Every structure is written in C-alpha cells, then in structure tokens.
Amino acid sequence: MRYFSTQGSHETNLVGAMLKGLAPDGSLFVPEELPRFEPAEIRGETVAEVGTELLALFFVDSTLAPELEAICHDALNFPIPLQTLQAEQGDLAVLELFHGPTAAFKDVGARFLAAAMERALPGLDPGDARPLTILVATSGDTGGAVAAAFHRRHGMRVGVLFPKDQVSPRQEHQLTCWGDNVRSFEVDGNFDECQAMVKVAFTDPDLNTRQRLSAANSINVGRLLPQVVYYAAASLWHHRAQGTQANFIVPAGNLGNALGCVWARAMGMPIGSIILATNANRTIPDFLATGDWQPRPSIQTLASAMDVGDPSNMERLRHLIPDLGELRQVVEAYPVEDVAIRQQIAKDYARYGRAWCPHTATAFWVYDQLPQTRREGEPWIVVATAHPAKFDNIVEEAIGETVPVPPELAALLELPARSEALPARASALAQAIEGW
Ligand SMILES: *Cc1c(COP(=O)(O)O)cnc(C)c1O
Q1: pTM
Q2: Which end of the chain is less congested by CB atoms within 10 angstroms, N or C?
C-alpha cells in the first residue's frame, strides 16, 4: 500500500509515512485507497484480532507486514469494553476507550505507533546505531500517552516538552513519572513556545545531521489506523448480536478519533450515522452548516483536549468525501457549551450512576438533543474518550462526590516524578538533545 499526501505531491510507504508524520508539502498522509469488506468477512472477536484482519491491506508490501499481528497484540492489550446503559429507554451503549496506561483514548494510537516504530527501526538503516529521538510538545494529554507508549522501547527515546504551571497536577505527573528513555522538560513558556521549539529542532540542519529526530503527533497515520479498529470491532460486536448498524456519537477536537469512525464506515463496517460533538470551538459544525471553512484561534473550555480551532484532520475527511452534500449525509456535528457539559455530567450521574469526563459529556449532551424517535428507534454508541478521574476537579464539582481513581492511574500517580527546567529557547532544547 502506498501513502500519498493529501495535496498529492508526495508518495511514500507505511514506514515512511509513520517516521515523517507530516508530508514535506505540509499536508497529511492518506492511504492510496481504503480496503472494503463485508462485515461477515471479519472473523476476529477481540480488538487485536479485528485489527490484524482489518489492517492487513494497509501493511501490504511493508517490511512491517509480518509484524502486524504482534503489533496489534502488543499495542491493543487493554480492555475496550462496549457497555450497555441499562437505565436508558433507547438502545444506548458506551464504548470505553479509557482503560489504557494514561486513561484516555490517545493510548491506543500512541501504543500502536510505538509498537510499529520499534519493529520498523532495525530494518531502516542497520549500520546506524543512533537512537531515534521522538520530540513532543504537549498541553496535557498527548505527551503522557506518548511517553507511556515509548517508555522502555528499544532504539527510541522521548523528549516531552510541557509549559510550566499550565498543566493540571495529575497531567503533570503523567508527563514526568517515566525516567529511563523518557525525559520531561518543563519549559518556562506557554504551549505555543513549546511547539515552536520542537518545530525549530526538526528543521535545524546541524542538529538533524547528528541526531535522528521524529515526531509522534496525533496526525501521524500510525496513530490513525488503530483508531479505525475499535470502531470496526464495536460495530461488528453490535451487528453480530443484533443484526443492525449502530450509530456513533464521537467527541471531536482535532478530528483524529472521529476520522477513524468515518474510515471504518467507508471500509464497509456496519456503521449508520456518525455524529460529532465539539465543545464551544465550533469550526466543524459551522462548516457543515454553512459550507465555509473558517479556522479560528481556539478558545478554552472544560473539555480542554478538544480546544482546537483549526482541526487538522478535516483535510483527510474532505479528501475522502470532497462533496459537501455527500459529507453532510455521512456526518453531522453539534457544538456544546461549558454550561451544558457541567449539567450533563450531573444529569447522567443521577440517571445512570456513571460519571463522564467533560469530553465524553459533550457526546451525551448531543445524544439527549436527538429527536425522541431517533433515540428510541435506532441503536446508539457514545464514545467515552477519557476516565473521569483524569479531570477530577471538574467532575467532582459537578457530581458533588469524589471520583475513584482506577488502578492503572493510581499506579502511575504513585511513581516518583522528575522534570528538567528548560528556558523557552530552541538552542536550549538542541543542547539538551546533543548532551543526551
Ligand atoms: C484528544 C482528545 C479528544 C479529541 O480527540 P481528537 O482526535 O483530537 O478529535 C477528546 N477527548 C480526549 C479525552 C482527548 O484526549
């Protein structure tokens, strides 16, 4: 399988697309085609088994093809349960993507990318013994998932940059508790400055002749592919049990998670409607309503991991479905304000006895706004992107109780944390990498 940049000027293979992340023309890599299946053709039961079958064609002709099964079992090794909500009148279930090491769905993509890159490295340039240095700038969630995923993997090391005093205490702990091949840099600046430092490092010719640098950001095709898998698996479980297509409601920020759902549907998986829930950053709902693509600066909301004003993966979505009318047939999108997020967390805790993180709450709010005929006449799966204990201050205020910390997260919070202070200068980062 070949991978092309959406602007069409660059072509590479799977490993090339994973190592580069972004295409040299600044656009994103997409596979040359999406394979199509009949639901009955996929036999696997677990997410890892479904992944091995579903992703095989994406791995054809790659040095990683013989490793796909091992990558799926290595990366997709935690539960992704589909839980029915009993108290509900309609047929409603929640797909819980938050049982990985850092308790959010980004663990899926980060673990898959790490497992794949670890296996791709030895075949790249066997004479080159230098480690691959992965740099990530993070405003909270991504950095922890990437650090956890690459921790103690061979031939690779991770530098995480985060803005001093701008991440929550629990988030900071998840960025700084790793050690070994992970270094955490507390930058005396904001997130944009962290990101600018990483950008300069990637384009610094001296640094790049001496060091092998790579990125692991969320636009990497190696993070997108496994996100197709849990939609395929959940829709197949539902289809095998009930013989119908499930509709999905997905919390959306940069649109990577939701794009997995759209790709799974385009690949023939039994998926009906796809509804995106955004927070008050309403670039996507506005675009679907008006046809005008108007990226804008992001605004801060309670669902902070979705504070995106210029969602990158829209480029991939429009590449797949260029016609606006057709796109509107496949996806709908609704914005959700902070007041509604708070109210929804309280309401669903009372109704189902379940506490949602603020991101997940946007999707449940959208579910509640659907016309009753639609809610009760069709099966719905709402996607839960993070464990509520990650956002304990917001959730506990809304429900008036403490949220129990799940064992995986508790274990992380027990680990000693350590970070290195770094001034917000690209030269300081270069120096740290050279002296590693
Ligand atoms: C990143 C994130 C999102 C948004 O996902 P996108 O792929 O950027 O749309 C939603 N919820 C949580 C908890 C996240 O960490």
Answers
A1: 0.95
A2: C
